[in-house]
Automatic annotation (TrEMBL):
Database matches in InterPro entries: FAD-linked_oxidoreductase-like, Mehydrof_redctse-like
GO molecular function annotation: FAD binding; methylenetetrahydrofolate reductase (NADH) activity
Cellular component terms per the entry's GO annotation: cytosol
Catalytic activity line of the entry: (6S)-5-methyl-5,6,7,8-tetrahydrofolate + NAD(+) = (6R)-5,10-methylene-5,6,7,8-tetrahydrofolate + NADH + H(+)
Protein family (similarity comment): Belongs to the methylenetetrahydrofolate reductase family.
Record-given protein name: Methylenetetrahydrofolate reductase
Length: 300
């Protein structure tokens, strides 16, 4: 299956990364080392997660500021709205822009642990479309030279947990595009056809923004099971069996599987790959080496 490429994607595929804030001092030191290596690879951007209800907010802002001031990477800030009011979200957007961060991944986000959609404070949260509109509203309140940036959104090849159909997922993506989103990043998936099929249907329905495939080279059995939970699909039986046979730790298996999927989706027309790092640079950089997407400077 070959996709119809849209936008002004470069001829050679590009890549980007996701990291999350450290929760201990030791983890922060390791993360600093990690993002320096990721930055040296020359990604389009490095996105930083932001927990539900502002969990780890200070850590997110600190990491975004570190990326902005001490690396060459463009930082992209995740924003979530669950159990946050408009005024609080606006204040966060302003604070991130004050720190020099102008690219955002607009998400409604998951409910905090122990809560679900039956809770009124969760059900009443702003949608991702409303968040896009709010980001643009804040940009309108800022000086022109400090309000330029991209808005990314999430896409779900295997369906959002609250979605009733593929068509509903695509309709939401169209609504995000019409609200001002410039690119989408997919939730994790295991098989190339899941991404290629979703993008083909989305383009036929009128989606023109680039849809970046989100991939993660798992290194442990626990990570594989976590990805299966996030993807909403069983882990591939052959990868699961091989990981179990290896004793639960086999990063080379995760790298090889990710490379194979990435090759297929890039050949199918994907403009880029977005790699979930789990705050480890070694495995995602090995994926990029195998895909021949790193320039020589990234090996230094």
């Amino acid at each position: 299956m070959t996709l119809l490429l849209t936008g002004s994607a470069p001829t050679k595929p590009r890549f980007s990364f996701e990291v999350f804030p450290a929760r201990t001092g030791a983890a922060a030191l390791a993360l600093g080392h990690c993002v320096q290596h990721l930055s040296a690879a020359g990604p389009d951007f490095i996105s930083v997660t932001y927990g539900a209800n502002g969990a780890h907010r200070d850590g997110s802002v600190d990491l975004l500021r570190y990326l902005r001031n001490y690396t060459d990477a463009l930082p992209m800030a995740h924003l979530t709205t669950v159990r946050e009011d408009r005024a609080a979200i606006k204040a966060v957007i302003h604070s991130m822009m004050d720190a020099g961060v102008h690219d955002f991944l607009a998400l409604r986000g998951d409910p905090p642990r122990g809560m679900d959609e039956s809770d009124a404070s969760v059900a009443g949260s702003l949608s991702s479309v409303e968040l896009i509109e709010l980001i643009n509203e804040v940009r309108g309140e800022r000086p022109a030279l400090t309000s330029v940036g991209r808005i990314a959104v999430a896409a779900y090849p295997n369906g959002h947990p609250l979605s009733r159909s593929r068509r509903e997922d695509i309709d939401w993506l169209i609504a995000k595009q019409e609200a001002g989103a410039q690119l989408a990043i997919t939730q994790l998936f295991f098989h190339a056809d899941e991404y290629l099929g979703f993008v083909a249907e989305a383009q036929q329905a009128g989606v023109t923004l680039p849809i970046l495939p989100g991939l993660m080279p798992v290194s442990t059995l626990g990570q594989l099971r976590k990805v299966a939970s996030l993807a909403g699909r069983p882990a591939p039986a052959d990868l699961l069996a091989a990981m179990e046979k290896a004793g639960g730790y086999a990063p080379e298996l995760g790298v090889a599987y990710t490379v194979a999927v990435a090759q297929e989706i890039l050949q199918g027309g994907a403009p880029s790959v977005h790699l979930y790092t789990f705050n480890r640079h070694e495995y995602v950089l090995e994926v990029l080496r195998e895909l021949d997407l790193l320039t020589p400077i990234a090996f230094i």
